[in-house]
């Protein structure tokens, strides 16, 4: 029992440690608009409901589903998306009536078919190589486009290698919850606030109406996979609303309300996918009724709405179907309802906060005291220079941090293990989804996971890694369909084109769209996965899952690369640079990722000590790729034939304009195309590491290219530029991109912090939510503050003047080193390194060799000075090291400790601890005493302050561990001790003894919890109920004694034989100790049979009269009364031996004559069922009371 308590306590303590040390609660923060200060930097808030999902609604999610909170007063809307509600794939699941083949159209079953593909491939390669007429091998004048669609001679040949869009489609919008408040005049509402706390992932709406303060709380729980809404008021009986669940995913969906649950169920017409949602309404007080498909609640004190949803999608080839979702959804929503709102919220906050609180960042900011939309507008005024009010510098820093942390928030809300990865819109959207809302593999899905690892959220990349494991299998046929390479066992690789879906679409795009031709999609996808290994050091993942996939793609390129005589290098051919320009051989985009993939696969093989023969082949190909080429403008060339920006030339041909250069989805200003949004030829700089500060020629060329592309772009393109500029080390340009993103409006962050791709002139005309811009921005800030791609850590490599004072806690570098940093006026105060895996740590920072390295105990650590700016030292797994210029004791802030110490003392003074278990009382006393001591210690270390604050947090978190009410258990034990086991059969006695002992242990344990007491009570009562009293054998024993002295020689042989058999049977029954009251009939029957046999003994001197065999010994008529054979009491009249006919009354066991010895009538005297039953009624009554008490507690 104590072990169970310790386990529960340790769980609560762990949950407490996940909460950030900021003094905050999960409820809505104070209303700054009402004059109370906003004390939470990471709370985004608004003073009006949302009217538009893209720009205003608040996003909540748990990886599986997402919610958009509008927060209306009279009518609230929570829009829902379920990530697997997706059209396309095999129609009918297993039936596959549309012959879905992952987009591949070329037949590949026979050698003849595969040779035809190789012939088509060679045709286009030879034309691209031929420079006798055209610079790019094809007539440049034949190119034309509409959006990303491409026409021309080269496209006609490329189409023969591409797939089509059979089975390709978008996610389907799902449903909305509506909550309509009764009789509300919105003009009379005051104090309205709608907010989202990123630390806890709790959204709230609060307002005042007619003297009542109303609050709604919303969250998507990952632990319980439900969406929860809570409605409360500060006066009882004021919650009145109706709610319904409206489908937008299927016209045929049914929507029914029954009891407390609304069920929405339907299927997609395109593929038969079944989706179901259940919304359970749980009012507290008041009345609940059903009205059609709605549920009405009136006069309630509070109400909780819980929604669970799911589909029969399963990420498994080839049908992508699992079980009907009904049972799972029903079980999930019922379990959540049984768990209750408080526990759901507690587990949700603990789960989210455990991830989110890992990283803190500050730039000398101040917490804004204005709504977030106003803050963003002020920032836009500054960026646009439109003369409007601009934010203070401290407000600017605050918004830059808020946008950074929002990327981390969306990572947690949108990507959790067991779910699909985030797509172009994450898991949020309403209506149709731009660009299919799919998985774009030419930058977008990869960008979604750029910040994950450095931001200390490695678990959130698992959905991406898992997705690649399945996509790898689906993409094996694309190798053959597009290149004619045999690949039956998958050893020669797998491909994914520009885009994919949950149905693992993997072909090289669709005909007529050159952007779909993206053969390096798998190599780029695996770069993110390899980064996961570099950051975590997960050798099992590298060996068992990642390396086999990397190896197969390296084998593919080893086979697929084409030697170009004109370029004198191996090239990817045909090739395309997303998303502009002609079809070519050897676009820099392809060449760079192929080089990087060989580099990573070779490193992985050497780490694992395998495939050295293949390594030699891969290295030979890699060394002849020339992935970075510099043009005549000093730029990194996008195409081999490029000369200066926008121009190309080959052989003896004249220089031409590059066809399709800068074509930008119609985005134009004054009729002129702006610089293109894609920077596909700079992948060598980021996310690859081919270009670095160590090769200045390439770095200079990269900066020339970046300058040509400028600042304006889509939201996600700005994010890519931010990462690129961060890699250059040029902080001024990088920060200009930060400002352009944060203040970019429709081509930057919207007022709800969603990032926008943007449409119209220069992408600024109208918003198009695309989530990769959020993630790319967070990744870019990571890169400005910490880099580790070159095999060592660079501290603060691109620190702008605007962030010259600040700190970061919890950022992660490759090698699994967690880094804390603090700097003042642009100079580092200290760096703290926690080595999660151990091993050598190498870092670079100006003058770092002059710094001192100490361990957690303050002991100096030996370092190797590699240069004036670079040092190296060995680390132990789990150890923390500080790199500092300070030799004196660091001044440690005790503000957080003081907050939790005062809070603990307040709980103690208020009596909150009085009814807790003893261990919690002890913990409170110890933590408060320790807190007082540390507060008084001027030399207290940072670790002491942190550890003591954590201990106080643990104590506060454990307040819900109340001591059990043992009254019921005490009564049960008192009853049990009244029982004399000598009167009961042995069966069940051991269980009773054990249950009684366990119950006494609970009574003696000061740490007993209510659940333990209830369990002990139930076990003891069940054990008592199972006891069986021994059968009453008094009458049988008396009869046996009576017949023991009979001289059987005086009776006839026949009657003695009957008597002897009856006697033997009676003795056997008497000797059977296992007979209980349940077997009393067997005992009574033995008595009756033996008594009858005794009375039936016939003396040898008696000679029966054949005419009157009964003689004068009895009235033969009376012997017919054998039904009364139990009336053995009448046999007491044995003095009248002649009236033996009365022995027939022995059957009337209910009237046992003179002896009256049957067990039924003896029960009250012997302690049989009657007294224990009476006492059991007392126990049962007390148990019923316990149930009532339990229900009151739960409420």
From TrEMBL:
Pfam families: FIVAR, Glyco_hyd_65N_2, Glyco_hydro_95_C, Glyco_hydro_95_cat. It comes from Candidatus Mediterraneibacter tabaqchaliae. Residues 1097-1164 are annotated as: Disordered. Residues 44-315 form the Glycosyl hydrolase family 95 N-terminal domain. Residues 1-28 form the signal peptide. Residues 1116-1164 have a biased composition (Low complexity). GO terms for molecular function: alpha-L-fucosidase activity. PANTHER family: ALPHA-L-FUCOSIDASE 2 (PTHR31084), GLYCOSYL HYDROLASE FAMILY 95 N-TERMINAL DOMAIN-CONTAINING PROTEIN (PTHR31084:SF19). The lineage of its organism: Bacteria, Bacillati, Bacillota, Clostridia, Lachnospirales. Residues 340-785 form the Glycosyl hydrolase family 95 catalytic domain. InterPro entries: 6-hairpin_glycosidase_sf (IPR008928), 6hp_glycosidase-like_sf (IPR012341), AFCA-like_C (IPR049053), GH95_cat (IPR054363), GH95_N_dom (IPR027414), Glyco_hydro_b (IPR013780). Keywords: Hydrolase, Membrane, Signal, Transmembrane, Transmembrane helix. Residues 787-883 form the Alpha fucosidase A-like C-terminal domain. GO terms for biological process: carbohydrate metabolic process. This is Glycoside hydrolase N-terminal domain-containing protein. The keyword S-adenosyl-L-methionine does not apply. The chain crosses the membrane at residues 1169-1189.
């Amino acid at each position: 029992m104590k072990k169970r308590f310790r386990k529960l306590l340790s769980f609560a303590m762990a949950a407490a440690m996940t909460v950030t040390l900021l003094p905050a609660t999960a409820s809505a923060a104070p209303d700054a608009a009402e004059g109370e200060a906003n004390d939470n930097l990471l709370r985004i808030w608004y003073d009006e409901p949302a009217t538009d999902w893209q720009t205003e609604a608040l996003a909540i999610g748990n990886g599986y589903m997402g919610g958009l909170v509008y927060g209306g007063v009279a009518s609230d809307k929570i829009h829902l998306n379920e990530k697997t509600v997706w059209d396309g794939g095999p129609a009918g699941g297993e039936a596959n009536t549309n012959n879905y083949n992952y987009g591949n159209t070329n037949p590949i079953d026979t050698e003849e078919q595969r040779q035809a593909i190789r012939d088509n491939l060679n045709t286009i390669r030879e034309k691209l190589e031929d420079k006798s007429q055209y610079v790019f091998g094809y007539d440049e004048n034949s190119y034309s486009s509409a959006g990303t669609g491409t026409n021309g001679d080269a496209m006609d040949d490329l189409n023969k290698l591409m797939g089509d869009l059979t089975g390709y489609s978008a996610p389907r919008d799902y449903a909305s919850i509506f909550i309509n408040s009764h009789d509300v005049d919105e003009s009379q509402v005051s104090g309205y606030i709608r907010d989202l706390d990123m630390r806890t992932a709790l959204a709230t709406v609060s307002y005042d109406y007619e003297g009542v303060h109303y609050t709604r709380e919303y969250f998507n729980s990952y632990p319980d996979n439900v969406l929860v809404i809570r409605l409360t008021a500060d006066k009882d009986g004021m919650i009145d609303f109706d709610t319904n669940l409206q489908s937008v995913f299927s016209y045929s969906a049914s929507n029914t309300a029954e009891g407390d649950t609304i069920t929405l169920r339907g299927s997609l017409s395109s593929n038969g996918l079944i989706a179901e949602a259940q919304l359970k309404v749980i009012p507290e007080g008041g009345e609940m009724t059903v009205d059609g498909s709605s549920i009405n609640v009136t006069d309630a004190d509070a109400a909780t709405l819980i929604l669970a949803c799911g589909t029969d999608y399963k990420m498994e080839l080839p049908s992508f179907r699992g079980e009907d979702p009904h049972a799972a959804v029903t079980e999930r929503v019922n379990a959540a309802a049984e768990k209750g709102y408080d526990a759901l919220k507690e587990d949700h906050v603990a789960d989210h906060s455990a991830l989110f609180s890992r990283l803190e960042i500050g730039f000398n900011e101040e917490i804004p005291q204005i709504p977030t939309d106003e803050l963003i507008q002020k920032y836009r005024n500054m960026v646009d220079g439109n003369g409007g009010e601009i934010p203070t510098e401290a407000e600017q820093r605050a918004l830059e941090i808020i946008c950074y942390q929002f990327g981390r928030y969306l990572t947690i809300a949108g990507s959790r293990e067991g779910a699909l990865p985030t797509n172009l819109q994450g898991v949020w959207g309403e209506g149709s989804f731009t660009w299919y809302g799919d998985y774009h593999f030419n930058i977008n899905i990869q960008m979604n996971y750029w910040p994950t690892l450095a931001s200390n959220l490695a678990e959130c990349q698992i959905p991406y890694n898992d997705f690649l494991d399945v996509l790898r299998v689906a993409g094996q046929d694309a190798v053959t369909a597009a290149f004619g390479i045999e690949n039956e066992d998958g050893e020669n690789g797998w491909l994914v084109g520009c885009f994919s879906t949950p149905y693992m679409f993997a072909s090289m795009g669709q005909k007529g769209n050159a952007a779909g031709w993206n053969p390096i999609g798998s190599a780029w996808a695996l770069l993110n996965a390899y980064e996961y290994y570099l950051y975590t050091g997960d050798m099992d993942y590298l060996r068992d899952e990642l390396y086999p996939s990397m190896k197969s793609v390296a084998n593919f390129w080893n086979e697929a690369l084409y030697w170009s005589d004109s370029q004198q290098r191996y090239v990817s051919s045909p090739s395309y640079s997303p998303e502009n320009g002609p079809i070519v051989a050897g676009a820099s985009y392809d060449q760079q990722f192929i080089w990087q993939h060989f580099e990573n696969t070779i490193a992985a093989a050497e780490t694992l000590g395998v495939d050295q023969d293949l390594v030699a082949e891969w290295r030979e190909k890699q060394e002849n790729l020339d992935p970075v080429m510099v043009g005549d403008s000093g730029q990194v060339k996008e195409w081999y034939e490029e000369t200066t920006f926008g121009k190309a030339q080959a052989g003896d041909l004249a220089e031409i304009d590059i066809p399709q250069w800068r074509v930008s989805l119609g985005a134009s200003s004054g009729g002129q195309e702006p610089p293109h949004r894609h920077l596909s030829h700079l992948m060598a700089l980021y996310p690859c590491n081919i270009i670095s500060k160590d090769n200045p020629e390439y770095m200079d060329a990269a900066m020339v290219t970046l300058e040509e592309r400028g600042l304006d772009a889509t939201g996600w393109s700005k994010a890519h530029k931010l990462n690129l500029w961060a890699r250059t080390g040029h902080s001024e340009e990088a920060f200009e991109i930060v400002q352009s993103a944060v203040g970019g409006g429709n081509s930057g962050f919207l007022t709800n912090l969603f990032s926008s791709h943007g449409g119209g002139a220069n992408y600024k005309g109208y918003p198009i939510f695309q989530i990769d811009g959020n993630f790319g921005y967070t990744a870019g800030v990571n890169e400005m503050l910490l880099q580790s791609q070159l095999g060592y850590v660079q501290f603060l490599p691109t620190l702008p003047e605007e962030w010259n004072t600040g700190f970061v806690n919890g950022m992660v570098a490759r090698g699994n080193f967690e880094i804390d940093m603090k700097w003042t006026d642009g100079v580092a105060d200290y760096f703290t390194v926690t080595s999660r895996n151990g091993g050598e740590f190498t870092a670079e920072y100006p003058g770092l060799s002059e710094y001192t390295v100490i361990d957690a105990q303050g002991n100096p650590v030996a370092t190797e000075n590699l240069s004036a700016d670079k040092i190296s030292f060995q680390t132990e797994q789990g150890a923390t090291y500080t790199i500092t210029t300070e030799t004196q004791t660091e001044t440690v802030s005790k503000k957080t400790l003081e907050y939790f110490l005062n809070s603990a003392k307040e709980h103690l003074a208020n009596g909150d601890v009085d009814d807790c278990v003893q261990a919690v009382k002890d913990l409170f006393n110890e933590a408060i005493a320790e807190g007082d001591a540390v507060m008084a210690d001027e030399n207290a270390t940072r670790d002491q302050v942190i550890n003591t604050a954590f201990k106080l947090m643990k104590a506060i978190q454990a307040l819900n561990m109340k001591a059990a009410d043992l009254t019921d258990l005490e009564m049960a034990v008192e009853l049990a001790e009244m029982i004399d086991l000598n009167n009961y059969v042995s069966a069940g006695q051991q269980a009773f003894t054990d249950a009684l002992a366990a119950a006494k242990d609970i009574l003696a344990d000061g740490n007993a919890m209510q659940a333990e007491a209830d369990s002990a009570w139930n076990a003891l009562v069940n054990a008592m109920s199972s006891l069986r009293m021994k059968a009453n054998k008094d009458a049988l024993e008396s009869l046996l004694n009576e017949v023991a002295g009979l001289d059987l020689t005086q009776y006839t042989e026949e009657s003695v034989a009957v008597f002897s058999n009856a006697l033997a049977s009676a003795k056997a029954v008497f000797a059977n100790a296992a007979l209980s009251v349940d077997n009393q009939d067997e005992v009574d029957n033995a008595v009756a049979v033996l008594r009858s046999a005794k009375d039936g003994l016939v003396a040898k001197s008696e000679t029966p009269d054949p005419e009157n065999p009964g003689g004068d010994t009895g009235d033969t008529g009376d012997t017919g009364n054998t039904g009364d054979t139990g009336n053995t009491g009448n046999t007491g009249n044995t003095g009248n031996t002649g009236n033996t006919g009365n022995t027939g009354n022995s059957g009337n066991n209910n009237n046992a004559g003179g002896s009256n010895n049957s067990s039924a009538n003896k029960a009250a005297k012997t302690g049989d069922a009657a007294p224990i039953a009476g006492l059991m009624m007392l126990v049962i009554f007390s148990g019923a009371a316990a149930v009532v008490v339990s229900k009151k507690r739960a409420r």
